[in-house]
Amino acid sequence: MDLATLPLNVTEWLHPEAWLQLFGTFATVGVLVIIFAETGLLFGCILPGDSLLFTAGILTAVSTINGEEFQPLPLPWLLVGGPIAAIAGAQLGHLLGARYGRKLFDRPDSRIFRQEWVEKAEYYFTRFGPAKAVVLARFIPIVRTFLNPLAGMLGMDRRKFFVWNCVGAILWTDTLFLLGHFLGSEVPDVERYILPGVAVILVLSVIPIVREVLKGRKADRGPNKNGPEESRPSLSGDSYR
């Protein structure tokens, strides 16, 4: 592969095609490494997630996207390796959170880190409860990176985390791989639908979250007038004692 043909604009590296071009023959391994990093390491929040899995699924059925030739990817390896990489990454995140606690997030805002991302992950953890949050977070960019160490920091039982981590990992990875494979097999010029397809997936995954938030707000408007204030995510950890 000619490195001179790769995109130089940083924002273009958010596109999955750029990463798949970079990995070339080792694209399958590269996809699994990105899945692991995005779910286990804090800097992974800047890596492509849903769009990469969806595009990888398409490349199990076609070898050309937007005129670019790609190495065809083996669907069985993705269906097995994807969940394993997602589970392993999340378990690492949980371990780091349990070991280092708040110090893991004690850093100033930068181009690849925002305290508001931690607060958002903590909000979902509080609002939905540990089990549901671990599963739902898989479908929310950035939150799926920060919720795993947050769960470890807040003392979520390791065995319980592992069970729901497995459920969420399998649903997230294999659903997107299979959806991409199906569309790649059945839809002509499927590359036109990569971004719309990811957008639809994000909307569908957000619907149950929005419903839960709305129900929670209705409950907060009840007898306790201070409900909304108490439900606001706090980084002090007092609400988990």
Automatic annotation (TrEMBL):
Signal peptide, first to last residue: none
Residue ranges of every copy of the VTT domain listed in the record: 47-181
Localisation per UniProt entry: Cell membrane
Source organism: Actinomadura meridiana
Transmembrane residue ranges: 18-36, 41-65, 77-97, 161-182, 194-214
Key words of the record: Cell membrane, Membrane, Transmembrane, Transmembrane helix
Region (Disordered): 218-241
Membrane topology: Multi-pass membrane protein
Main location: membrane
Compositionally biased tracts (Basic and acidic residues): 218-232
InterPro entries per record: DedA-like, VTT_dom
PANTHER family per UniProt: INNER MEMBRANE PROTEIN DEDA-RELATED, TRANSMEMBRANE PROTEIN
Name under which the protein is recorded: DedA family protein
Family: Belongs to the DedA family.
Pfam families: VTT_dom
